[in-house]
């Protein structure tokens, strides 16, 4: 991880309140692994904002992030113009553990938890894995990257209100997936809880979110318990990806 | 003598800048960004008698020019800190200050005493200002009598200089400072965080799991400057100043107010290089405002 | 009933938003920007027994997300205020709250009593938190016994409801609130400014002529929210909340913490239209967070 | 006075740390009088910054301001790009009192006190007055608007170090000015004190500076005593221009 300056090469609203931003920086693009994030300094804000790396283009020295307007920081980020420079710590965190033995992989993403799975999916396809994706969104207006995931493999879209794809939650689709070796999931905590409960006997990894201070492991803001005896991991440094049995959700 | 050098009880500092307790862990993470030998000193995260898990999350929130934290003294306990963290810091030629906390006089004594056994801890910072640190319902950090008592006990238990870290959440900061000075404190650290709260509108609840948290960052700098300015005129022990420092100019402001050295907390989160960058900027900044050494600036802003 | 309406002792407010004392003069200047009838109420600048010139300049300084002020209670004296200012405000259908200050119990009584004579002042705001307000060396604003005494005397001198304005510069805000409630306060106003200081590097001196000043603006909002949240659980009289409000969302946060109405100070300087703009935004903001009236929000953020 | 949005049409560094900025707004340009100021909102700052109106172009709906980098606010202001929008309260304050009987007018400006005198000078020339200007600057690098003032009339430049024009203070030149009816002065307080002492028997007006809160007369931040009995004026509202006998410097 380093402190780097990234140049905004492109910024597009790809779904309701959801932006895709392409950032140029050779160190980040050369070193980023799926599941890692950038800790972005947004002008006028005390704390940095963690945003996952959604894809990498090593030829162009760029990484892509996808973010949803959530509060003042992401709102300001959406205002950044092409050519602006953004300071980031990264690539931060551990990223997804790849398991060479698994051949069919299930990706389960919810809302703004979808982006890191795209970067992972691309990598897994490069490694000759079969990918099945289940992506959940609030409503049709929030759906993004459907085509991108379809290019990786079988993709199921779920919306809470049924305005697009099937109606319900990602867990409603999981049962219908014939067979897979490993799952990777990222999304809101209630979804991750449901997923890891549903797939308790499966091998899987989940990517977690928590409010962060330092983003580097120094401040203990982002801990998650691993047991009831005070055991813990830091999401920013030991995560954001954990084996589903490693942490207590 | 180097223009940045500062001599304080137990601390021979090559420069007056150190990371503040709780904002730098035990140095490991930031050692990946730069050489910790650059720092004047390192103040470690609070140590308690046993390991503590701390509060539930969320533990931090952003505020205007500041942040709230309610980490809750999470730490692996004093034994583990000595074994794993102090030993790591032993590889650097930078004095280490151990921040100590506890829930009872006995715990403070125990933690203070434990650091006697180790070399490479140069001083203690006695954290009496954590909101969950009280005995018999009275906070050590807001009652001069209690503050003096814990200072005295820690002094007796320890063979290291003791810097007492004062809480700004008091009506009369000078009374607190005088009380701990009389009880034998070798220095003061000020200020700790102001108690604050944020309510999260969508959930209609306090955002922090602990409800309240400590406010730090540039927002509190004027309060820190005022308190140091006031206390400087009534005590003679040195002051490590902190609260919202982000630039070398801020360091000068603290020195003018009467601080002898400074600590930098929240700013590390925005810029992991803030401490070395400020240290590098200090000589030029001193010169720009007509000073030739840090020593010369201390207390110069006080009008009498 | 209008969704913004609020009923407080002596005050029937069409909405919960009023300019804070000292940040709006006596309304004249802002009446050139908009119709003062829009406001829930108007809190006038502090009145003392005689005219006061106040402190030397500079009287204000900017800080991170805030400002310091040391105006020093400059005002033309209570008689002149009644004759020239209250008479001007009489043309509006907006309740007027008179902020009263003094250097002695007698001065407080005198000022409070003077407002009995006038109609169109609906309530008093008792400013005990100004740093230069003390008697026998003890500040009214930081000692519960003194605070209760001045409250009691003002209540006896006045036939108007009395809102006591609390200082945040105390170890125990709840003790202050309970003391003035027991002494008969009809409501609380909180918070006044935190005492702070800025040192001007080129001159090496405190920037404000008065050295210290009161810190206001968004920087202090977390402290205000925390204190209101805490006090709300221990007193039953209404609270006018203030400290760093700049948006309708901030108003909601104060209401959730337990304020019954709010005042807006520093933000008027940045945007003279801030009060009417917030009032206009409130109905939509209430709706967005699932509320149908201001009344409904009060204290809803408190976890028990 | 209104709250208005002004568009930055141009911004140029015309002397060391000194910027000339042209701002477009029809209300401000139509109503501004010499000596009035704008109370500018600069992004990220709690308090507005008072800056004098240095000239007005009613045909183009623009006003020009000149400012020196003094601290963080003016530094940010210098970063504003063409096309940016700046929020201002204005035109604020009273402006200079014009005296129809005076025929020869002395303008005495020091450093960044020079700008409001330019607007005044142009107006006076329009009114057929004879203008003599004395402008003081720290050093040669800080000199600006010499040509502009020369077009209005006789102009003396003074620098503290003698690096340009004559060496010394504006008061060193005043004695050599043959005759004039009224003077107008703006500059640092020590200069204004010296000028009003030197010209105590003359008719004159001075423009004052003070740190401001509201800028509209409501907060009592910017008062200046008029006597020793508590009399005062507010610089933002009753000033910034005062008759030299009206205030106690
Ligand atoms: C490892 C990680 C990866 C993430 N990846 C993405 C991503 O790819 N795309 C995306 O849109 N979002 C992502 N998030 C969530 C994103 O960090 C928040 O939406 C964002 O920080 C909100 O900032 P704000 O200023 O808009 O909201 P505000 O609520 O105004 O932020 C206030 C504070 O709370 C923090 N905060 C608020 N919500 C969250 C949250 N959900 N998680 C962590 N901190 C939060 C902010 O960082 C800030 O410190 C990720 C979070 C983590 C921890
Ligand atoms: C009526 C009036 C007209 C002015 N006209 C001009 C002009 O035409 N060109 C120009 O360059 N300057 C002018 N000034 C001075 C200008 O306002 C200050 O240089 C500017 O506010 C400094 O802001 P800063 O953020 O750069 O400095 P900082 O020191 O960072 O500002 C901090 C605070 O102090 C205030 N402040 C600092 N210096 C002054 C000062 N000298 N006067 C008033 N407030 C100050 C700021 O407004 C701000 O609130 C004028 C001042 C007044 C009162
Ligand atoms: C996340 C965080 C954790 C902290 N933990 C401690 C601690 O363990 N012990 C302590 O004495 N102070 C602690 N503090 C207070 C800081 O050391 C410092 O006094 C305060 O933050 C003011 O400085 P700043 O504004 O530069 O951050 C902590 C502050 C923060 C922000
Ligand atoms: C310039 C200024 C003058 C003030 N004068 C008074 C006063 O006369 N009486 C008083 O009770 N409070 C006074 N206050 C305090 C405010 O009323 C208010 O309590 C405080 O500023 C916090 O609110 P804010 O952050 O919205 O400004 C003053 C504040 C400012 C900034
Ligand atoms: S955010 Fe600081 S430890 Fe994770
Ligand atoms: S700046 Fe507020 S009265 Fe002049």
From TrEMBL, chains B, C:
Q: What Enzyme Commission number(s) does the record list for this chain?
A: 1.3.-.-
Q: Any stretches that span the bilayer, and where are they?
A: none
> What is the documented function of this protein?
Catalyzes the conversion of dihydroorotate to orotate with NAD(+) as electron acceptor.
Protein family: Belongs to the dihydroorotate dehydrogenase family. Type 1 subfamily.
Q: How is the cofactor bound?
A: Binds 1 FMN per subunit.
> What is catalyzed by this enzyme?
(S)-dihydroorotate + NAD(+) = orotate + NADH + H(+); (S)-dihydroorotate + A = orotate + AH2
Q: Might you name a Gene Ontology BP term for this protein?
A: 'de novo' UMP biosynthetic process
Q: Which domain of life is it from?
A: Bacteria
List the subcellular locations. Cytoplasm
Q: Which cofactor does it need?
A: FMN
Recorded metabolic or biological pathway in which this protein acts: Pyrimidine metabolism; UMP biosynthesis via de novo pathway; orotate from (S)-dihydroorotate (NAD(+) route): step 1/1
| Keyword vocabulary terms for this entry | Cytoplasm, Flavoprotein, FMN, NAD, Oxidoreductase, Pyrimidine biosynthesis
Q: What class of enzyme is it?
A: oxidoreductase
- Keyword Cytoplasm appears in the UniProt entry: yes
Q: Which Gene3D superfamilies does the UniProt record give?
A: Aldolase class I (3.20.20.70)
Binding of substrate occurs at: 45, 69-73, 127, 192-193
Active site at 130
The protein's name: Dihydroorotate dehydrogenase
Q: Supply the InterPro entries for this chain.
A: Aldolase_TIM, DHO_dehydrogenase, DHOD_1B, Dihydroorotate_DH_1, Dihydroorotate_DH_1_2, Dihydroorotate_DH_cat, Dihydroorotate_DH_CS, Dihydroorotate_DH_I
State the organism named in the record.
Answer: Oceanobacillus jordanicus
GO terms of molecular function: dihydroorotate dehydrogenase (NAD+) activity
Q: Which residues form a coiled coil?
A: none
State a single Pfam family of this protein: DHO_dh
């Amino acid at each position: 991880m380093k402190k780097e300056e990234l140049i905004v090469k492109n910024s597009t609203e790809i779904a309701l309140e959801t932006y895709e931003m392409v950032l140029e920086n050779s160190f980040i693009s050369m070193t980023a692994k799926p599941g890692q994030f950038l800790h972005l300094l947004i002008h006028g804000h005390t704390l940095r904002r963690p945003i996952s790396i959604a894809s990498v283009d090593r030829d162009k020295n760029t990484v892509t992030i996808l973010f949803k307007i959530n509060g003042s920081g992401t709102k300001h980020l959406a205002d950044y113009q092409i050519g602006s420079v953004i300071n980031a710590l990264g690539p931060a965190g551990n990223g997804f553990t790849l398991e060479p033995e698994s051949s069919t992989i299930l990706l389960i993403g919810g809302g703004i938890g979808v982006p890191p799975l795209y970067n992972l999916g691309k990598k897994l396809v490069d490694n000759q894995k079969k990918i099945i994706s289940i992506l959940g969104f609030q409503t049709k207006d929030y759906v993004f990257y459907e085509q991108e995931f379809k290019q990786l493999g079988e993709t199921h879209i779920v919306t809470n209100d049924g305005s697009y794809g099937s109606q319900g939650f990602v867990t409603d689709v999981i049962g219908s997936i014939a067979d897979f070796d490993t799952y990777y999931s990222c999304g809101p905590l209630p979804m991750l809880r449901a997923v890891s409960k549903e797939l308790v006997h499966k091998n899987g990894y989940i990517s977690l979110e928590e409010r962060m201070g330092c983003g580097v492991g120094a401040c203990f803001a982002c801990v998650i318990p691993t047991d009831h005896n005070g055991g813990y991991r830091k999401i920013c440094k030991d995560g954001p990806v954990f084996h589903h049995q490693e942490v207590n959700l | 003598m180097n223009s940045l050098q500062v001599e304080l009880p137990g601390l021979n500092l090559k420069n007056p800048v150190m990371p503040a307790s709780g904002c730098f862990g035990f140095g490991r993470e930031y050692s990946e960004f730069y050489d910790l030998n650059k720092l004047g000193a390192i103040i470690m995260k609070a140590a308690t008698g046993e390991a503590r898990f701390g509060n539930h999350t969320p533990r931090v929130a952003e505020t205007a020019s500041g942040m709230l934290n309610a980490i809750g003294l999470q730490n692996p306990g004093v034994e583990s800190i000595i074994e794993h963290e102090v030993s790591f810091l032993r590889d650097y030629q930078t004095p280490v200050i151990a921040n100590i906390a506890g829930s009872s006089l006995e715990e403070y004594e125990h933690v203070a005493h434990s650091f006697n056994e180790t070399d490479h801890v140069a001083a203690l910072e006695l954290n009496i200002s954590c909101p969950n640190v009280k005995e018999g319902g009275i906070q050590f950090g807001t009652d001069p009598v209690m503050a003096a008592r814990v200072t005295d006990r820690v002094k007796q238990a320890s063979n290291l200089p003791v810097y007492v870290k004062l809480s700004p959440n008091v009506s009369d900061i000078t009374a607190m400072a005088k009380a701990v000075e009389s009880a034998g404190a070798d220095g003061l650290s000020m200020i700790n965080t102001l108690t604050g709260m944020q309510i999260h509108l969508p959930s209609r609840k306090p955002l922090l799991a602990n409800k309240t948290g400590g406010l730090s960052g540039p927002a509190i700098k004027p309060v820190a400057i005022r308190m140091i300015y006031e206390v400087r005129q009534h005590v003679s022990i040195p002051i490590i100043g902190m609260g919202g420092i982000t630039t070398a100019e801020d360091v000068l402001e603290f020195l003018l107010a009467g601080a002898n050295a400074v600590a930098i907390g929240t700013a590390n989160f925005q810029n992991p290089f803030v401490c070395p960058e400020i240290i590098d900027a200090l000589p030029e900044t001193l010169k720009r405002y007509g000073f030739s050494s840090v020593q010369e600036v201390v207390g110069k802003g006080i009008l009498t």
